[in-house]
Each structure stands twice: as structure tokens, then as C-alpha cells.
Design goal:
mainly alpha, about 65% helix
Length: about 150
């Protein structure tokens, strides 16, 4: 539960509470209070949790919720049409980028909050590239040249 609350709070801060709150029908102060894991007097409703995910387009709190129940949230990506070769090249490029980000973050053997976020973002981008590769392969005609 702690990971979920922290991820909601980070999402609200990064999405800018002043821009997100009006979309939810709240004041930014109320949104900040409700999303703050240290403030037990104000809690989010399920509808507000949903709206944060919807309007911020940041689903880390949804991933944290799924993870708490032993699930791994996969998908949610808009897959653009690419040729299999282009999708493969993009996937390899993203994989190399993820590797570099992880190696640099772990170089000093200390993981900061920003480094963790960078790694999570890189992995999400790599998963999206893998989904695009899968879609490209599935769209290939069988038995014909492409």
C-alpha cells in the first residue's frame, strides 16, 4: 500500500497539481492533501485515483496496485504500425538505452529516487518498443514476402 500511495503522490507532483486538479473538480491544495501519503486526514476516493491515472497519463500507481496483488501490468500502449525491421531496430535501440541508463545509475552502487524513475521510464519505453515489434510481426503475412 505504501508504494501505491507514494506513486500517486509522485504522479500528482510531476503532473503539476495546479493543472491536474481542475480536471478532477478539485482545488490543487485538496489534491495535494489527498495524495500526500503522510496526511492521514485526507484520502483519495477510487474515482479520484482513476482520474489521476486518466488525466496524468502516468500509470505507475496502477502498476503499483497490480504489483501489490502479485500482478504485472502490461500493455496500455498505443501501438503504431511499423515494418518488422523498423520495429526491431527501435526495440534494439531502446534496449541499449535502457542498459546504459541502468548501468550509469548503478555505477556508484547507490540508487537515487531520480535514477529509479529514469530506470522505470526506460523500461516502460522498452516494453512499448517490444509491443510494437510484436504487433509488426503479427501483422506480417505468412508465406509471402514483405
Amino acid at each position: 500500500m505504501e508504494n501505491i500511495q507514494q506513486s500517486i503522490h509522485e504522479t500528482v507532483l510531476e503532473a503539476c497539481a495546479k493543472q491536474l486538479a481542475p480536471k478532477m473538480g478539485l482545488s490543487h491544495v485538496s489534491l495535494l492533501q489527498r495524495s500526500n501519503p503522510q496526511n492521514e486526514g485526507h484520502q483519495l476516493t477510487f474515482a479520484q485515483f482513476y482520474q489521476i491515472n486518466l488525466h496524468s497519463q502516468d500509470h505507475r500507481s496502477l502498476r503499483a496496485l497490480a504489483n501489490d496483488f502479485g500482478y504485472d501490468l502490461v500493455g496500455g500502449y498505443v501501438v503504431t504500425e511499423k515494418t518488422p525491421i523498423q520495429a526491431l531496430m527501435d526495440s534494439l535501440k531502446q534496449s541499449a538505452s535502457t542498459t546504459q541508463i541502468v548501468m550509469e545509475a548503478l555505477e556508484d552502487r547507490i540508487l537515487t529516487a531520480q535514477e529509479r524513475k529514469d530506470i522505470e521510464n526506460a523500461i516502460a519505453a522498452e516494453q512499448k518498443a517490444q509491443q510494437q515489434l510484436l504487433a509488426a510481426v503479427r501483422n506480417m503475412p505468412i508465406g509471402r514476402a514483405v
